[in-house]
Each structure stands twice: as structure tokens, then as C-alpha cells.
Amino acid sequence: MSLPVHYMIERGPRPVAPFSHAVEAEGWVFITGQMPTDPDAPDAPLPDGIVAQTRRVMDNLIIVLEGVGLGLENITMARIYLREFDRDYAEMNATYQSYFASMRLPARTTIGVTGLAVGALVEIDLIAKRP
């Protein structure tokens, strides 16, 4: 068994805590939860509303996935954290689902939380598998 490989993606979002963007072990790639921050303007205000924040998070996840040579089709599991679960669940679901081919959705857990870093409404982390 080889040691894990730690990735920091050059064009990826600026970390909001001490972490790697992704860590790979034996073909499994664990993508750190992404926030709705703009990689090109990390100090800019967050997008308004759950739809815009979910899009930004998904786009950030795509940047990290592409940085390790993978895509959305490689995701096996997603965990979604929502600060306003009851209010935002339906809109977040519709936005999230629009990123995937029909009937090709990863396994998923969605969790309501009392707070997220940088005041975000949503955070998503992933597990992916190399072919």
C-alpha cells in the first residue's frame, strides 16, 4: 500500500482552513468540502442565495476534480451540509441535480448544520474513484 497523495490545485479555491484540496489513496480521491468562494476573487462577498452558492460550490468542486484528472462522472459519494435545511433543501437539490446526467447520481447524504465557514449556506465534499 502506497502513501496517500496530497493535492493543492493551483487554480483551486483558496483554502479557508489548513487542508489539502484532495487526498488520494489506492485510487480513491477524497475532495475537501468546498465553499461558495470565487477562486479568482477569494475575498469577494459570497453569492446571494442557495442557488448561486450551490452553483459556485459545484463549480469549485469541478475545478478540484479536473485538477486531479477526474470529472463528475467519477464521484461515488457526496455529502452536503446546509445551514438552512428546511428553507434551502429543494432549491439546492434542483441545482445540484442539474450537474449530473439523468440516473447517474452519486450516493449522497445531506446534513443540516448550525453554521459553516465564511458564513456559507452550503458546503459539499466528495469521494471519487479513479477508473
List keywords for this structure.
single chain, 131 residues, alpha+beta, 60s Ribosomal Protein L30, Chain: A, six-stranded mixed sheet, globular
Note the topology.
Layout: E1 5-7, E2 22-25, E3 28-34, H1 49-67, E4 75-82, H2 85-97, E5 107-112, E6 122-129
Parallel strand pairs: 4-5
Antiparallel strand pairs: 1-2, 2-3, 3-6, 4-6
Q: Count of DSSP helices?
A: 2
CATH top-level class: Alpha Beta
Q: How many structural domains can be distinguished in the coordinates?
A: 1
Order of helices and strands: EEEHEHEE
Cα-atom radius of gyration? 14 Å
State the CATH topology: 60s Ribosomal Protein L30, Chain: A
**Which of globular, elongated, flat, extended, rod-shaped describes the shape?**
globular
Classify the helix fraction into a percent range: 10-25%
**Strand arrangement, largest sheet?**
1-2-3-6-4-5
Strand residue percentage = 25-35%
CATH architectural name: 2-Layer Sandwich
Q: In this structure, how is the largest beta sheet organized?
A: 6 strands, mixed
CATH superfamily: RutC-like
Average pLDDT reading: 96
Distance between the termini: 18 Å
- Overall number of strands: 6
